[in-house]
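Bit of a strange request maybe. I'm writing a small parser for C-alpha cell strings and I need a real example to test against, not something I typed by hand. Could someone generate the C-alpha cells for this chain?
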Amino acid sequence: MSHPGKGGEYLSAAEAIRLLGVKAQTLYAYASRHLIRTIPHGNKRLKLYSREDVEHLRERGHARSGKRFTASGGLRWGEPIVHTAITEITDAGPKYRNRLATDLARSNCSFESVAELLWSGIPVDEHICWNRPPPALDPDRLINALGALRSDVQLIHAFLILALTTGIAPHNRDEIRQGTTTLVARDLISSLPGCFGYIAKRRSYHTCRPSTGVAESLARALGMSEDEEVVSALNAALILVADHEMTPPTFSARVAASSGSDLCSCIVSAICTHSGTRVRRACDKVEELFDWPLTPAAFRKRLRALQKSGASPPGFNHPLYPRGDPRARHLIEVAKSLQQQTKQSERIYAVLDQLASESQTLPGLEVGLVTLCSALGMPKQSAAGLLTLGRVAGWIAHVLEQRLAGIMLRPRARYLRLE
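Reply from user aminoacidic:
Good idea to test on real output. This should exercise your parser:
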C-alpha cells in the first residue's frame, strides 16, 4: 500500500525492497546516495521511500539485465538509447559540451554564444549577438488571417506560426542543400522574442532591431526596462534552459531530423511535443499554484489538496536532481539579487524556504523560472515562453547532431495479443 507523502506517493521500506528485488542494505545505500528520496514517517527513525524513484531504479535494473522490456525501460527514465555529445546531466546540473550551464550563466557569455557552442562545440567566450533581418512575413497579418484575436493568442501558438513561416521563407528553403542551416537557425531564434509582444500590453508582434541581442529583444517586446540587470537576468535564464539532454520534445526533433525534415519542420515538431501538459504546461501550473493570495498557510492547504488527489506539486523534486535542481537554485539566486522585488516574489521566497526546511520539497526548473519572472514583474506565460525560446537552441543542436549520425530513428514495437 502506498502512503501519501509530501511531494508525491511514497512506499514503506518493505514495499520498496519487494519492488526492487534487493536486500534492505541495498535500499538504504540507494537512499544514502540520494538515488531515492525519503521522508520521515511516524517514529523519526522510520522512513518512506519515493515511489517514483523506486520505479525509476527498477526500470534501470530491467534495462541493464537485458530482460524482456529493455527498450521500454530505456524510454522511461532508463538506459540511454541515443548517443550525444551535446549535454551531460550531472549532479551540478547540465553540462553543455563539457561546460556547466550554471558557469556559463554566471559568465559574460550571451545566449547567442551558448547557442553557437551547442551547435558547433566551439567555445565562444564573448558576448556576441546576431545581426539578422526581421521575419519575411508579418506575424500579425498571419494571425489576423487565421481569424484569431491578438489578445487571445497563446505564446506557444505564436512560436509555431513563426517557425512555420521562417521555414517557408524563400531565402530559407532547402537549407540543407544550400548549406545555410546556421543562418536559418539564427533567423528563427532572433525573430522569436518578438512573439512576447502578444502577452505584453501591446498585444502584437514586436519587430526587433537587427543588431539587438536576444535577451534585450525579449525585454523590449515585453515593454520592460532594458537596463543591464534585467537583460542579464533574462540572458542567464535562456542559457540555463537551452538544453537538457533527451527530453520528449528533443527526441521528437531528432526523429524528424532522422527522416530528412528541414530545420524549421524539426523545430515545429519539437514545439508541438513541448506544448503538452507535462512539459511546457508545467510552468503554467506552477504559476497557478503560486497565484494570489499566496501565504505559507494557503500554500500548504493547496499541497494537501494535491496530495489527496494523488498528484505531486508541479515543478518540484526533479527525478534527475534528488538533492535539488542547480538550475532552479541559480534562477532563484538571480531573482533575489534584483534591486527591486514584487510582493509576489517575496511571498514565493517565504513559501520555498518553508517547503525546503519542513519537507525537503525542492524547487525544479519551472519553479525557478516562475520565481524569476515574478521578481521581474513579467506577465503570465512568460516562464513557459522563456523555457521554449531557450530550448530552441538545444533542439537545433540535436537536429544537427542527428543529421551527422546518418541513421533513421525507428524504435520497434512489441505486439501484445489481447485475448
